[in-house]
């Protein structure tokens, strides 16, 4: 954590209810948390605990039913759709369990995408993507497509894509879930190094071994935060 760090995530009394016909399903129930700039946090919970729903809300992919959510000082619930799209593109880097790489694009093309969506020039985007991929040990795999890469290498491409725009916040949903033990360890070392460089990292997982590698864990069960350390 950075000394005198500002609050990046300020969630207060968040409730998320899904309507299923005449039934209401409360997935998140009175969730509150603060995450500061430079934090490296794991949100740990079993399947069905609401942790992926929480990630979607923290990443502005969905909105809560009630409560308050401030991201880097912005009142998310009052933001317009175009503001939320801009936040997702410029302030948040997403890493997903299934990588979500476009199969027809090469590694470097996949990593360039967020910058191109911002309106960056192609050559600038290409140089930035190459720099991040080299940083993650994929300098020899720039022109390989996802099906030509191992699971661990695909995850590295996904991480490079998440950080290529230097976002305030990196959100990772089960980033080791599809990896073998060595690749999982390598991915965690990458996240640790990114955090040492000042990135704010939030990992959502059910894996206790992942949680044991960070200083702060937020536990979620049945849609409620039930313990913090």
Question: How many beta strands in the DSSP annotation?
Answer: 10
Could you tell me the mean pLDDT? 91
Low-pLDDT sequence parts:
none
Q: Please identify the top-level CATH class.
A: Alpha Beta
Radius of gyration, Cα only, in angstroms? 17 Å
Helical content stands at 25-40%
Shape: globular
Tally of discrete structural domains: 1
Largest sheet: 6 strands, mixed
Percent range for β-strand residues: 25-35%
Summing up helix and strand content along with how strands pair, one would put the structural category as alpha/beta
Number of helices, where a helix is a run of at least 4 consecutive DSSP H or I residues: 7
What's the arrangement of strands in the largest beta sheet? 6-7-8-3-9-10
Spell the H/E element sequence.
EEEHEEHEHHHEHEHEE
Can you offer a commentary on this structure?
This is Putative ABC transport system ATP-binding protein. The chain has 229 residues and is of the alpha/beta class. It has a single domain, classed as P-loop containing nucleotide triphosphate hydrolases (Rossmann fold, 3-Layer(aba) Sandwich). 34% of the residues lie in helices and 30% in strands. It is built from seven helices and ten strands. The protein has helices spanning 51-58, 81-90, 107-118, 122-135, 151-163, 181-196, 208-211, and strands at 7-20, 23-36, 40-44, 66-71, 74-75, 92-96, 169-173, 200-205, 216-221, 224-228. It has a six-stranded mixed sheet with strand order 6-7-8-3-9-10, sandwiched between helices. A four-stranded antiparallel sheet has the order 2-1-4-5, covered by helices on one side. Helix 3 packs across helix 4 (122-135) and helix 4 (122-135) packs across helix 5 (151-163). The longest helix is centred in the last third of the chain and has 16 residues, at 181-196. The protein is globular, with a radius of gyration of 17 Å. The model has no long low-confidence stretch (mean pLDDT 91).
């Amino acid at each position: 954590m950075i000394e005198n760090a500002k609050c990046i995530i300020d969630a207060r009394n968040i409730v998320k209810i899904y309507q299923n016909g005449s039934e209401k399903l409360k997935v998140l129930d009175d969730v509150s948390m603060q995450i500061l700039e430079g934090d490296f946090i794991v949100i740990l919970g079993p399947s069905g605990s609401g942790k992926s729903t929480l990630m979607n809300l923290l990443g502005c992919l969905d909105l809560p039913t009630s409560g308050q959510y401030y991201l880097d000082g912005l009142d998310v619930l009052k933001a317009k759709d175009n503001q939320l799209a801009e936040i997702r593109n410029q302030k948040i880097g997403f890493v997903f369990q299934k990588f979500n790489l476009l199969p027809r694009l090469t590694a470097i093309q996949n990593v360039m995408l967020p910058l191109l969506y911002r309106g960056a020039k192609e050559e600038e985007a290409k140089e930035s993507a190459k720099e991040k991929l080299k940083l993650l040990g994929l300098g020899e795999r720039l022109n390989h497509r996802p099906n030509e890469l191992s699971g661990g290498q695909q995850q590295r491409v996904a991480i490079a894509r998440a950080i290529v725009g230097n976002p305030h916040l990196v959100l990772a949903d089960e980033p080791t879930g599809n990896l073998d033990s060595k690749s999982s360890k390598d991915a965690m070392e990458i996240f640790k190094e990114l955090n040492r460089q000042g990135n704010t990292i939030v990992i959502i997982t059910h894996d206790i071994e992942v949680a044991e590698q960070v200083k702060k864990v937020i536990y979620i069960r049945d849609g409620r935060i039930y313990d913090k350390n």
